[in-house]
């Protein structure tokens, strides 16, 4: 089923939980800063890179959910598709925020001066002057998570009250949200997977990410090019996506 082709929604919607995570502390920023940054190549000359741990056995197979994720992303009967997407985005955001909260003391301006997501890839942010700038990963992630939290709290964007409709712009908004959440996952895998391992949280984190990927593909929220990157600046998790697809965890 195509999310964007589906405009029908039931008249009555179940209420999502009104209790939401507290807003991360951060300076506010204007909508001009919200435009998704584009990846840049930092250096083409890199020595052969050892295989990241997240691609290595047994960590690549570690998961709480066994088998294919297709069944858990399917739209339940009688549930409105917009509501289903909104609810899942709220859950992905909340869970990812909690994981990031645990590793946040390792993700510092010194340790992560850029929003890296692969050996030759770091994402840039578009600033007030519409210039691509590198931000330290903790700053970038704080901007992203604050922006999403504010959207989730905005009744006009993510309506929770019965009788309030989702706006026309909802599909495009959630695609932007999804793209930025993917970048946060990509940074954690690339720069902080050893900390996830140290906490023995890799089955949880892998399951969350596989669920996120599967849901994003099912409802056309996720572009494959964003998952894989380019040949000169691949996203580290692009290989993870391929590995899971080959293992039958994800669909093609
Ligand atoms: Zn970091």
Automatic annotation (TrEMBL):
Residues 21-32 have a biased composition (Low complexity). Residues 1-15 have a biased composition (Polar residues). Transmembrane segments: none annotated. Keywords: Metal-binding, Zinc. Residues 34-43 have a biased composition (Pro residues). Residues 1-43 are annotated as: Disordered. Zn(2+) binds at residues 107, 112, 187, 192. PANTHER family: MPS ONE BINDER KINASE ACTIVATOR-LIKE MOB. This is Maintenance of ploidy protein mob2.
């Amino acid at each position: 089923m195509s999310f964007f082709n589906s405009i029908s929604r039931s008249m009555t919607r179940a209420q999502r939980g009104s209790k939401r995570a507290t807003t991360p502390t951060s300076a506010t920023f204007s909508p001009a800063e919200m435009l998704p940054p584009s990846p840049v190549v930092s250096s083409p000359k890199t020595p052969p890179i050892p295989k990241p741990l997240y691609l290595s056995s047994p960590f690549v197979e570690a998961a709480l959910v066994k088998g294919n994720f297709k069944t858990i992303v399917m739209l339940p009967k009688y549930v409105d598709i917009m509501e289903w997407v909104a609810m899942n985005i709220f859950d992905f955001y909340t869970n990812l925020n909690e994981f990031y909260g645990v590793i946040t003391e390792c993700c510092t301006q010194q340790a992560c001066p850029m929003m890296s997501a692969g050996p030759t890839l770091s994402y840039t942010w578009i600033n007030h002057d519409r210039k691509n700038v590198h931000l330290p990963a903790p700053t970038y992630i704080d901007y992203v998570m604050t922006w999403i939290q504010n959207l989730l709290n905005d009744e006009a964007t993510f309506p929770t009250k019965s009788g309030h409709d989702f706006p026309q712009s909802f599909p495009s908004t959630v695609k932007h949200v999804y793209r930025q959440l993917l970048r946060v996952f990509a940074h954690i895998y690339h720069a902080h997977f050893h900390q996830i391992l140290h906490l023995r949280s890799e089955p949880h984190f892998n399951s969350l990410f596989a669920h996120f990927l599967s849901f994003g593909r099912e409802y056309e929220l996720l572009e494959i090019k964003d998952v894989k990157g380019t040949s000169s600046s691949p996203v580290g998790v692009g290989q993870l996506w391929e590995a899971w697809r080959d293992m039958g965890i994800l669909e093609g």
